[in-house]
Amino acid sequence: MIVEHDWAAFSAVARMTDHWARPGWPDGGRVYYWMLTLADSPSLVSRARHCQSALAHLGMDPIPDDGLHVTMTRIGDTAHVPPTQIRNLAALAEHLPLDPFQVRAHPLAGSRGAVRFTLSPWTHLVRLHAALSDLGGRAGVPGGLPTSAFRPHLGLQYSNRDQPAGPVIESVASLCSLEPVLLDITAVDLVELRRTDKPRRAYRWDVLHRIRLGPQQGASAEADLFRRR
Fold first, then answer.
1. In this structure, is the dihedral angle defined by the CA atoms of residues 110, 15, 175 and 56, taken in order, positive or negative?
2. 155-167, pLDDT tens digit by residue?
3. Distance between CA atoms of residues 92 and 126, nearest Å
């Protein structure tokens, strides 16, 4: 049902817009987010490359292998959230009462600003979002959208101009018969996110804290290291 709904919504889009023309991202801006980073999933990387190759003629901005991610929730702008608050938030997250889970990434659908995988089921993703939002409230960070407005998705490539959506939808439809990719979600990352235009426009990030899910949950040994993305 989620896949059908996602496709119906994308099919109704009349025009694609420029994803990068968004408020809230000043030059040099950096923002803390909770994200699921997925570069370590070979099956997803392979499927993403296949789909991006098939859609290359559209001239969109493909998401690089190490940029594949699911945005969980915004924490706050680095200018307004001090490091002490981030450390406190990460410490609270070490006690997340959630186990690892699996989701499927279904090819493909989209929105006005992107082509993306549809994720299902939502149950565990929504629970994780709610838990992270609760932690943010306890830590006193600005936070993002409420869980009721959370719509999980996994981006494949971004629209970089205003254009009719019809040719994009037609091209994406040719890939919808591909089998979904199963993703193992074992951790959630607290990242410092930025946008870059070199060598091409993309989101990049530094992982500040990785929180493992399940009995061995907690900040990993990488917590004090930045993993460059």
1. negative
2. 999 999 999 999 9
3. 19
Q: For residue 200, what pLDDT is reported?
A: 83
Q: How many CA atoms lie within 13 A of 58 on its CB side?
A: 28
- Per DSSP, the chain holds a count of helices (H) and strands (E) of 5, 13
Q: Which string of DSSP letters, residue by residue, matches 148-161? A: GG---EEEEEE--S
Which residue type, as a one-letter code, is found at position 143? G
Percentage of the chain surpassing pLDDT 90? 86
The alpha carbon torsion through 101, 68, 11, 169 (nearest 10 deg) reads -140
**What is the sign, positive or negative, of the torsion defined by CA atoms of 223, 73, 204, 38?**
positive
Whether pLDDT at 145 is above 60: yes
Q: Which residue has the higher pLDDT, 200 or 122?
A: 122
- Amino acid identity, residue 63? I
Kindly give, in sequence order, each residue whose CB lies less than 8 Å from that of residue 111, ignoring residues fewer than 6 positions away: 9, 10, 13, 153
